[in-house]
Every structure is written in structure tokens, then in C-alpha cells.
């Protein structure tokens, strides 16, 4: 995604020419200079994401220094158009890559201020041209690495990690103690009808580490088609909710149109905001927290297995109201009993 010259500079993938105001910044870090191309409608969070692509320093580890802007670059929600940035001045980034520090995922801020967007507001966000531009740029910039070949005729299940498959806040001697109950049984059953992708709002290093520790990446009963990380997300604007990150499924559909579309994709996440660019394809899963207290009574994946298998034969998954998945499953069980 990025290339470095012999002088130690690097350039990000070119941004779509459809964007009018493009800004080229020079970022100094660890004795090298990197060229980062961003747009006025990008946020500080997006700038940090672009820097991460070049340096592997996660956004949460970055401190950006720039003449005469004070603490504005510490506010991820600010748009770059609100900050007086000039291509002629150089920005300094202070930060450390994950390989050089001991990372405890529990140190990261917990996102608990989830919110439910009204139907009209969600449509407005999805259809807003500035958000569409960001999505087009992300499609150009992000490359999906296929681990297992896509299977023709299968639907697609996209899964979050934290609080969906794994309690990342509790402590344990063995990561398996924090795994959501019935995870492998759920994935094995789903794999019969669905290709499976994992999409986390964390780094790829974290995704690979945790999925490896939980035995998800080498399980003989199912395969993982691809892993996606925070770099695949985009920052969108809402008039009522401000700026926040989300997971646009269209990125997957654009890269693999011969296999996946809105009609055959469903996504599980504990944060409904992540579905805002594709609200008809998202199912909000009950968060799995306090693993030690809830491990023996959490049945969410058992119930969701029944739902996935019940809708597997439906041609258009986006036509369903996934917020009613529990009642759909119950009705399906009753119909089968009386058949």
C-alpha cells in the first residue's frame, strides 16, 4: 500500500481525483520523512490512519506536532479543513510501533457510547457525498488479503472480535477463558453456508494474535476467508452525531463483486454505529463482557447459529429486519415443529 524511496521518504496510495481539495503533508518520524496525501474533508483520525499505513504506528500511539495549531491535532474528530495546515511546513509524529512495546489491549479506551441512528439519519449518512468519497478512497487504498479462497454460491458472514467473540477487558491466565462460549461450534456450523471474515477496529497484529490464540485461524472444521483491521474503516460525518468510525461492507463488495453483495452478506457487531454505511446488513450482537461471571450462561452464539442457518436459503438478506432475529428464529422453530 505504500512505497519508500531510497532517501527514506514514502508516499501513500493516490487519493481519488474526484476530491477537490487535496493536501500533501510531510511527516517526520524516527529520522525519516513520509509524504501523506489527505483531503480537506478528512478528519484528524483519518490523517493518523494514513500515517499508520506508512509507519505502522497505530493512531492511538501517535502524537502529532505542528507549528501554531496547539492541541487541535489531538482531537480526532476535527476536520483538517478546520486546522491551518500548509504543505510547506513539516509535521512531527511521536510514537512507537507495536513490535517495540508490550501491548495490553485492555489499556485502550473502551467504546461504550454507542448510539442508535434514526432511519432517515442513517440514510443521510450513507448517501452523503463526502462519505461516499471517503469510501471510494478507502477502496483504492486498502487491499484485502485472502487467506482461503472465496466459495461460489456461499453467503458472507463478517464478525467483529471485541465483545462479539472475545471479552478483551477481563484478565485471565489463558485467553481461552475469555472466548465467547460455543465459538468454534458456531463457526463450524456457519461455515457450511457462509464464508467467514473477521473485521476488528484494532490493528492487524492484534487480530492475528487473538484469533491465533483462540484457535480460529487453524481450525480443521472451518476456514477464515480474510481478516480486516481498523485501516479498512472510514470516518463518517453525521449532522446530529458528529464524526465517528464505521465498517463499510461495500469495501468488501467492491473488491470481491463476483462473490459478495448486499444480498448475501450479514455482519455481527456489538456497536450498531459500525453498520451505518450498510444498516440493512448489520445485526447488533449482545456484548460478551465479564467472561468469568457470564461464561456458563451466555447462549448468544447458539441462538445466532439457528438464525444464520434459518436465513441461509433466503435470496436477499438485506430484505430482513435483523433487529428481530430472535423472534424470526422462534417462529422458524415453531413452523418446523408443525410441519
Structural class: alpha/beta
Spatially, the strands of the biggest sheet line up as 9-8-7-12-13
Number of helices: 9
The CATH architecture classification of the largest domain is 3-Layer(aba) Sandwich
CATH level-1 class of the largest domain: Alpha Beta
User: The CATH topology of the largest domain is what?
Assistant: Rossmann fold
The fraction of residues assigned to DSSP E strands is: 15-25%
Please tell me how large the radius of gyration is: 21 Å
Helix content: 25-40%
How many β-strand runs?
Answer: 13
Low-confidence stretches: 1-19
Q: From N to C, what is the helix and strand string?
A: EEEEHEEHHEHEHEEEHEEHHH
* Corresponding CATH superfamily of the largest domain: HAD superfamily/HAD-like
Mean pLDDT: 87
Globally, the shape reads: globular
Query: How many domains?
Result: 2
Could you give a short account of the major beta sheet? 5 strands, parallel
How far apart, in Å, are the first and last alpha carbons? 54 Å
Description:
With 339 residues, the chain is α/β, with parallel strands linked by helices. It folds into 2 domains: 3-102, Ubiquitin-like (UB roll), CATH 3.10.20.90; 108-337, 3-Layer(aba) Sandwich (Rossmann fold), CATH 3.40.50. Helix content is 26%, strand content 18%. It contains 9 helices and 13 strands. A 5-stranded parallel sheet has the order 9-8-7-12-13, with helices on one face. Strands 4-3-6-5 form a 4-stranded mixed sheet, covered by helices on one side. Strands 1-2 form a two-stranded antiparallel sheet. β7, α4 and β8 (194-199) form a beta-alpha-beta unit. The chain is globular. Residues 1-19 have low confidence and may be disordered.
Amino acid at each position: 500500500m505504500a512505497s519508500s524511496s531510497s532517501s527514506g521518504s514514502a508516499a501513500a496510495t493516490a487519493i481519488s481525483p474526484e476530491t477537490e481539495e487535496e493536501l500533501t503533508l510531510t511527516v517526520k518520524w524516527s529520522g525519516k520523512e513520509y509524504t501523506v496525501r489527505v483531503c480537506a474533508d478528512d478528519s484528524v483520525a483519518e490523517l493518523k490512519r494514513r500515517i499508520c499505513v506508512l509507519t505502522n504506528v497505530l493512531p492511538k500511539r501517535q502524537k502529532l506536532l505542528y507549528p501554531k495549531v496547539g492541541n487541535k491535532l489531538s482531537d480526532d474528530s476535527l476536520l483538517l479543513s478546520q486546522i491551518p495546515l500548509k504543505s510547506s511546513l513539516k509535521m512531527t509524529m511521536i510514537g512507537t510501533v507495536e513490535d517495540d512495546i508490550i501491548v495490553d489491549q485492555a489499556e485502550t479506551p473502551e467504546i461504550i457510547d454507542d448510539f442508535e441512528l434514526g432511519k432517515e439519519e442513517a440514510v443521510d449518512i450513507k448517501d452523503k457525498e463526502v462519505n461516499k468519497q471517503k469510501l471510494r478512497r478507502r477502496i483504492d487504498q486498502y487491499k484485502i488479503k485472502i487467506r482461503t479462497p472465496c466459495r461460489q454460491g456461499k453467503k458472507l458472514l463478517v464478525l467483529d472480535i471485541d465483545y462479539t467473540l472475545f471479552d478483551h477487558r477481563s484478565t485471565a491466565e489463558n485467553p481461552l477463558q475469555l472466548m465467547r462460549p460455543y465459538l468454534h461450534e458456531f463457526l463450524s456450523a456457519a461455515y457450511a453456508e457462509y464464508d467467514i471474515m473477521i473485521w476488528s477496529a484494532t490493528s492487524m497484529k492484534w487480530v492475528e494474535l487473538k484469533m491465533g490464540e483462540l484457535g480460529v485461524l487453524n481450525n480443521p472444521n472451518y476456514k477464515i476467508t480474510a481478516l480486516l483491521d481498523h485501516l479498512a474503516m472510514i470516518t463518517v460525518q453525521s449532522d446530529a452525531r458528529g464524526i465517528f468510525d464505521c465498517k463499510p461492507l461495500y469495501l468488501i463488495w467492491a473488491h470481491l463483486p463476483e462473490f459478495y453483495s448486499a444480498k448475501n452478506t450479514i455482519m455481527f457487531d456489538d456497536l450498531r454505529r459500525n453498520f451505518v454505511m450498510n444498516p440493512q446488513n448489520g445485526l447488533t450482537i449482545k456484548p460478551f463482557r465479564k467472561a468469568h461471571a457470564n461464561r456458563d450462561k451466555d447462549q448468544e452464539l447458539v441462538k445466532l447459529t439457528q438464525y444464520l442457518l434459518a436465513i441461509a436459503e433466503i435470496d436477499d438478506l438485506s430484505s430482513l429486519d435483523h433487529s428481530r432475529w430472535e423472534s424470526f428464529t422462534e417462529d422458524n422453530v415453531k413452523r418446523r415443529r408443525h410441519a
